[in-house]
Amino acid sequence: MSVSLFNLYQIMSSSINERIDLLTFGDPDFKSELLGLLRKELPIQYNEVLEAHANADYESIRFWSHKFKGSIAGFAEETDFDIIQKFEQLLKANHIKEALEIAPEAIIAMSKYVTLIENLD
């Protein structure tokens, strides 16, 4: 049985939606407020990571990756959280070469959450 990208997206968004429901104790107003905040902040944080990456500003990449990681900590898939955390830790330790090797994976993980949050109800 193959899983299409659309099906995978539905599975992931369902799981994240359920985690957000748990975080907000099932309170629809709290959930709406949280999603509104995430819809505002995640794209900013993500774009700051991209801009810092384009400018080889590793301290800013670390800072914005840390903020992004904190923003998704309560509902992220473990593998995504771990890669963003590893990326941040490598930058903090000034292991730039190793950080750049996993940068595409970390940036893709961040991008995924920007898109998922934009599309949650």
Outline of this structure?
The protein is elongated. By secondary structure, it is an all-alpha fold.
Average residue-wise pLDDT: 90
The portion of residues forming beta strands comes to under 5%
> What structural category characterises the helix and strand content?
mainly alpha
Largest sheet: none
| Relative helix content | over 70%
What is the succession of H and E elements? HHHHH
The gross shape turns out to be elongated
Number of beta-strand segments: 0
Low-pLDDT runs: 5-11
Tally of helical runs: 5
CA-to-CA gap between the ends?
29 Å
Structural Rg: 15 Å
Write the layout of secondary structure elements.
Elements: H1 5-23, H2 28-54, H3 58-72, H4 78-92, H5 96-118
Helix pairs in contact: 2-3, 2-5, 3-4, 4-5
Descriptive account of the structure:
It is a single chain. The protein is 82% helix and 0% strand. With 121 residues, the chain is mainly alpha-helical. It is elongated, with a radius of gyration of 15 Å.
Write a concise keyword list for the protein shown above.
5 helices; about 120 residues; single chain; about 80% helix; mainly alpha
